[in-house]
Amino acid sequence: MAFKPISEIGEFGLIERLAKITTPSTKQRPELLEGIGDDCAVWRIDESVVQVVTTDLLAEHVHFDLLTTPLHHLGSKAISVNVSDICAMNAMPDYALISIAVPPKMPVEMVEELYRGIEHAASVYGLAIAGGDTSSSASGLFISVSMTGTTTPELLALRKGASPGDLICVTGTLGGSTAGLHLLQREKATMIEQMRNNEPYNKEVMAELQEYAEAIRSHLLPEARIDIIDFFSEEGIVPTAMIDISDGLVADLGHLCRRSGVGATIDESKLPVLAEARAVAEEFQQDAFDWALTGGEDYQLLFTLPKSQYDLVAAHRDITVIGEITEKEEGLLLTDIFGITIDMAEMKPGFDHFAG
Question: Which end of the chain is flanked by fewer CB atoms within 10 Å, N or C?
Fold first, then answer.
């Protein structure tokens, strides 16, 4: 029997296969409203409350590098990326469970510093760390976070629900996380080269990173947009569809459109690219727009609204309208800064854990 390597189908191909296997189990719980396929699973608590639940795994050498990531920052990020999923459902976070697998020789003080970052982020977002699990690891540090949140059936936002004519909106700026990652990887390479040459660590030959503090912070300390959920509540806004940008704008817009059964067109000139990302991209002789479109890990919110609600978001300084939902047959299109139309299906997608 010939076996198929996961790299041939990729991360989302694997998810689709596993979903087919597990879908029959969902029939046993009629209160389950949404299973695999959105930022969170959703089930009904009672007639007025729904619970949203997400989980995320961070693996050393895959999601983070301890040579470039302070443990306090890593703990904070582990919480923020899950809160971002909760926000993508137009919900507020409540509780988190933290499970870790650590090498037995890792100093206790390092694990404590990780948890200080976890606790700090939890206090910022107003959630409780309610428990978890610990295990030894033979190959690096692993952090698994499961988180719950709540909202009402009327306020719940899913990836499905967008309709042709809806506005496509994005919060904050894009490209910052990818810019920060490039800078940190460059500094790591410089440090390792010095070590290989038996040279002392010389800060003077390292690039001055202070001027790019915002880009580095975007990568190491992303902030979930819980403030936008508060804004929606104040203004009575309920997005027709929403997702957080973790895999990259192109990939996540594709997820939203597939679930909604629609197409989309976006205007590259309207993308809110972080100013520092433009400068870093120029240093690396790369395109900041590419980073904004496919870089990932910006953890901003991508959502759709009827045109009739444009005035509700137009004045918000941290929300940008970047395009419009179209009919499914029109596909996913990008109008670049030169006015050329590009099929986003042909663009390199965001990060895939199992890509060959």
Answer: N
